[in-house]
Amino acid sequence: MRKPIKNNVSWIGKIDWALDKFHGDDYSVNHGSSQNAYLIEEEKVVLIDTVWKPHSTDFIDNLKKEIDLNKIDYIIANHGEVDHSGSLPQLMELIPNTPIYCTANGVKSLVGQYHHPEWNFKVVKTGDSQDIGNGKKLVFVEMRMLHWPDSMAVYMTGDNILFSNDAFGQHFAVEELFNDRADQCLLWEEAMKYYANILNPFSPLVKRKIEEVLALNLPIDIIATSHGVIWRDNPTQIVEAYYKWSQDYQEDQVTVIYDTMWEGTEKLANRISRELSLHSPNTRVKQYNLSKTDKNDIMTEVFKSKAIAVGSPTVHQGILSSVAGWLEFLKELKFKGKKAAVFGCYGWSGEGNKVLREELTKAGFETVDAEIKCSWNPTDEDLNKAVDVAKALLG
User: Fold this and answer.
1) Which of 41, 42, 83, 359 is catalytic?
2) What is the pLDDT of residues 156-189, one digit of tens each?
């Protein structure tokens, strides 16, 4: 069922309340999500994006109820990733000659995934436009690496709608669609999580692209995303948030992250958290066991933090696999301007701290000298070293 957005523009996507993971199992979804597709009915009829394959039959059946598919003049493929393009193969069987507007990289993506080079691709670049009648046109803006090389956005003149694709979205189910109707706490929590876990590696590009779009001085009444809410109430508030987040964002927060085998490393984590709070009562301190807390939620807290402490016992001259895997993910996200400390227990050889320090340095963190390296279960002398760790992270 379509839902009105503005004038002749409608939402025609999928609210997926049951979704609990994304990008395979790599991104946790806590509050459902949506795949947002849009139908424009001016003198020309335009479909912007589709939904992914599991919902393609329902999507096309719903689309048929709203419009004769043969009346669709153009399809806009803002991004080739399957959550946006998954219904294209089934749709193109029904309207095989319909032009598909996308970037040059979009052609590569769509052909590579679906193996239909015969589709009627129309390659566009930043500044190109397409007239849709009634004095309105679509203006294309490449959004390369936000977050794929093929990504683009589309601006609709007259109604002043920016179809932003993945930028400014969230994995968040909102039946009422619009930002002013959403739970504001959950909305901003999910918006930050989405940025921290998906877009942060491209922060320098985000900053430049926002500056480029703002320089165009386009009036924006609505930002129609591909996931989550549609921003109609003060839509540029999310643009301003992205601009702030793109500049090595941090709050007055320190996060302690660890895993443990026989609770020794956990005792060190507890003491470090306590000392952080004692030495800086206004600093927010959070602590997470990597084996018991979702990695994406932890990464959102790292995004907010000015410093982190990471702990693992030594295992086979290395660290626990849970910590090692998480550190690999940490490197992917390319955080900057943050401090890190290391800590851990060992029984025989004690290489864990060295491995932690090396991996955190590779991840772009400034590692402090203070650490806790504890043989067997921590003594009071070991625990008291948390004071130096706390001071180094707060300094």
Assistant:
1) 83
2) 999 999 999 999 999 999 999 999 999 999 999 9
